[in-house]
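Morning. Coffee machine broken again, so started the prediction first thing and wrote up yesterday's gels while waiting. Chain of 203 residues, entered below exactly as on the submission form.
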Amino acid sequence: MSSKKTIIYDLGGVLIDWNPKYLYRKILDEESQIDWFLENICDMHWNEQQDAGRSLMEGTIEKIKQHPDQAEKIKAYYERWSEMLGGPIGDSVSILKQLKESNKYNLYALTNWSAETFPIAQDRYDFLQWFEGIVVSGVEKMRKPQVEFYQLILERYNIDPSQSLFIDDNLRNVQAAQAHGIDSIHFLSATQLKKELTKREVI
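Came back before lunch.
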């Protein structure tokens, strides 16, 4: 029998398929152009600053000042952000449903997500209502892998890290949770997640 009482989920890449390429494949002709743009212009470091609480407008203006020749493509990043959502990761959501229906665990989410775009996801995905609490980086103005962000969810919901399990597709975030005393799974696929949960006797 598992000693776990709380399971903390990341959202993007674990339960929700989010990928900027879905949008930029409509804007740019070649995959190499898309890769270059997302690695050199609207890169993940820039996106994470909005996830950490900077306004979308401020982030966009700053980036256009740096790359005025890319202005239209930069503006599209947040103006058409919803087109980056590919839908729920079905098999992974099914596991979440199984955990919810077991009534054995407290379910929470800890997500790096802009406060301005997260409501779009809340409206679109009913399963986000299954969580007892969701801590959003853009709202709190801190993000994974910052120690304070993990501490925030533990304190807010009175969670014992030794009885918790954290699931994230970003190894950096997983390692930070482990350093905080939280058993963690680096999510690679729903099949792999199910094996890891079975090994821990969670399901």
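The longest helix spans residues 90-102. Going to sketch it on the whiteboard this afternoon.
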